[in-house]
Amino acid sequence: MRQTIVLGSGIAGISAGYHLKKKGEEVVIYEKDNDWGGLCANFTIDGFRFDKFVHFTFADSEYIRNLFEESSPTYAHPSVSSNYYKGYWLKHPAQNNIAPLPIDEKVEIIKGFINRKNKSFEEIENYEEWLRVQYGDYFAENFPMVYTKKYWGLEAKDLETKWVGNRMHSPNIDEVLKGSYETQDKNFYYTSYMKYPKKGGFRSILNKCREGLDIRFNKEVVKIDTVAKTVSFKDGTISNYTRLISSLPLPEIVKMIENCPDYVLNSANNLHNTCGYMVSLGFKRPDVAKHLWFYIYDEDILSARVYSPSMKSLDNVPNGCSSLQAEIFFDCKAKIPSKEEVMKNTIEKLVSMGLFKEDEIVVKDIRFEKYANITFDKDIYKNRKVVLDYLQSQNIETIGRFGKWEYYWTHQAFKSGMDCVK
Predict the structure, then answer these.
(1) Which of 17, 54, 20 is nearest to 316 (CA)?
(2) Which of 123, 158, 244, 351 has its CA 20 to 30 A from that of 78?
(3) What burial class does residue 50 get, using C-beta atoms within 10 Å of its C-beta: 0-12 exposed, 13-18 middle, 19+ buried?
(4) pLDDT, tens digit, for every residue of 367-419?
C-alpha cells in the first residue's frame, strides 16, 4: 500500500491530508504538539477563547470558500480597521486618513507626498526607498518605517519589495487631500470583508477537512533518512514512507535530514522570519473592545497589532465579557525580551491608551511562537532556492507558509496543500 506521510497538522497539512484521502490514498499526518491546527489552533482560559495569532479568511476561490463555510458558518466583518499614533486614532489606511492629526503635521505629510521622488518599481532598491517614493519622506519615516521595525524586526532598508503586492494602498493626491479634511467612508483595504467562524475559533473552518484524518500527536521528528525513506521520532518510533510532504519550517527540516550538505544548512540558517508573543486579555464587561483590529505606530509600545476575539465572535467569550489580543513581533535572530517585560509593557501601554483599567482584567495570558511570519530580506530568494532545490532533490515536497517560505494568507496556505496533491 502506498504510504504518504504529511508532517504538520496546520492548515496546509490538513488540506493535503483531506485531498489525498479524497483520492483514496493512505495518508498519516504527524504532529509534534498534542492538538491540530498549527498557527490556526486556539486555546481557552476560563471560557475565553484565543487563536494563536490572529486570523481571518477572504478566500478568492469558490471551492475553498465553500469548504470553509461547510465546516463552520462565518461572520463577514467589513474590513474596517484603525491606527493609533501618538494619542490620535486614524482610520486605516493612515496615509489617506490623516484628518485627526494636528495641522502642522498634516502639512508636513502633504508636503512630503507632493515632493516625493518619481521612480519606477525597477529603480527602487529596497523597501525604505519604496515607502519614500509612495508616501514621501515625512509619512514614511514616522509611520511605516517605524511599524516595519515593530512588525518585521528589521529596518525597512533591509527588506526587498516583491512581497508588498496589493497589501498597502498607494493614494493619489486627491485622496490624501480629502483625507486630511475628513475621515473617508470609502474602504481602501485590499479586501472588502474578513470572514471568521461563528463558533469554535478560527480553526473551525477546517472541521470538514479534518474529519476522519489519521493525525498522530506528540510525534516530533528528529531524523529523516531520504535513502531508506524513514522518519524517526523523538519517542523512538520510526515510520516508513513512499511519499513525504512537509509543512515544517525550512530551517528546521534541513537539520533533520541525514548528511544534509553544509551549504544547504547555511542557506537555511540565513533565512529570516519573525517570532513573537501573543498577549491575551479577557474582561468581565462587554464593551472594552472598540475596534475589530488596529495598528500601533508608537515606538515605545511593543505591541504592533491588537485584535478583539470577542468582536470576531461572541462565542469566544463568556456572556457579558469582551477580549483583546496583542501581537508583539521580533526578528528570529534578535535578543527577545522576557515574558514579564512584554506583559508589563503591553498592559501598561494599552491602559495609557485609554482602552481599559488594569483592575478590569480577569484573564491574562502570554505565549511565544518561534515562527510567526516570513521575512523578505534582500537574500531571501537566493537562500530559499538553495533549500527548496535540495529538498526537491531528496523527493521531499513542501507546503504551507513555512514549508514554501512564502508570505501566505490562510487560504493560500490551504491551497498549497491542495495543489501538492494535484
Answers:
(1) 54
(2) 351
(3) buried
(4) 999 999 999 999 999 999 999 999 999 999 999 999 999 999 999 999 999 99
- Cβ atoms < 10 Å from Cβ of 406: 18
The dihedral through the CA atoms of 139, 190, 165, 9 has a sign that is positive
**Positive or negative, the Cα torsion across 197, 61, 403, 394?**
positive
- The amino acid at residue 278 is M
At residue 2 the predicted structure's pLDDT band, cuts being 50, 70 and 90, is low
For the stretch 237-252, pLDDT in tens is: 999 999 999 999 999 9
Cβ contacts of 215 within 8 Å, gap of 6 or more: 9, 17, 29, 30, 31, 36
Q: Alpha-carbon distance 421 to 17, whole Å?
A: 9
**pTM of the complete model:** 0.94
- Let me know: does 54 contact 316? Beta carbons within 8 Å: no
